[in-house]
Design goal:
heterodimer, A: about 110 residues, mainly beta, six-stranded mixed β-sheet, about 0% helix, globular, B: about 120 residues, seven-stranded mixed β-sheet, four-stranded antiparallel β-sheet
């Protein structure tokens, strides 16, 4: 089976750096995704990792360790608009459906 | 706009009624997915199409749910005899066909705005 764990809530202030962790258990690994979801809106793609290491994309970076079943999303220079839910997801064994965690709600204050 | 579109965006219905939702994927994407999301949860997979073939169905997809993609383009999701527990956001996503992956990032699923269903 597959299971994904991530913290329920996090808070941070504008300009700070925040790291959102995700641990997963999967019977066959086919890649890990991070999505951002603002309240009442659809998830939007942030990053994809299939190999170990860090992927950097502007203010956002994502790290993967397959041996530890662990990923994190790093958000730098936080802005108020970064207040959202951040969803960690892995592919199912067939590489088709995404299995999502419950999401981490990030609140950025001034 | 060339993203995934869904219609309607909101639907209020009474328990026992049938509802149908539509999803139009990104035009060059032949893979289409339906998910359901309730408050405080991540999206949960319902079903997956490659072209017009429905290749995978979740155990969440009870007999009251049916999905079609008759011409391999748009898809419909119908819920018969709705129950209050069906109240959720229904999300559609699409992605490129696997044999066109030049970069694994192209497996990315792109989501539509969702249809929010409220069953009274």
């Amino acid at each position: 089976g597959q299971n994904i764990d991530q913290p329920t809530e996090m808070t941070a202030t504008e300009g700070a750096i925040v790291q959102i962790n995700c641990t997963y258990q999967t019977s066959g690994f086919n890649g890990l995704f991070w999505y951002q979801q603002h309240a009442g809106e659809a998830p939007t793609f942030l990053s994809y990792n299939v190999l170990d290491g860090l992927e950097e994309k502007g203010r956002f970076s994502s790290f993967l360790s397959r041996s530890k079943g662990y990923s994190y999303l790093l958000l730098k220079e936080l802005q108020m608009k970064d207040s959202a839910s951040y969803l960690c997801a892995v592919h199912n064994q067939a590489g088709t459906a995404l299995i999502f965690g419950k999401g981490t709600t990030l609140s950025v204050s001034s | 706009d060339t993203g995934v579109s869904q219609d309607p965006r909101h639907k209020i219905t009474k328990r026992g009624q049938n509802v149908t939702f539509r999803c139009d994927p990104i035009s060059e994407h032949n893979r289409l997915y339906w998910y359901r999301q309730t408050l405080g949860q991540g999206p949960e997979f319902l079903t997956y199409f490659q072209n017009e073939a429905q290749l995978e169905k979740s155990r969440l997809l009870s007999d009251r749910f049916s999905a079609e993609r008759p011409k391999g383009s748009f898809s419909t999701l119908e819920i018969q005899r709705t129950e209050q527990g069906d109240s959720a956001m229904y999300l559609c996503a699409s992605s490129l066909p696997m044999d066109e992956y030049r970069d694994r990032v192209q497996e990315t699923q792109y989501f539509g705005p969702g249809t929010r269903l409220l069953v009274l």
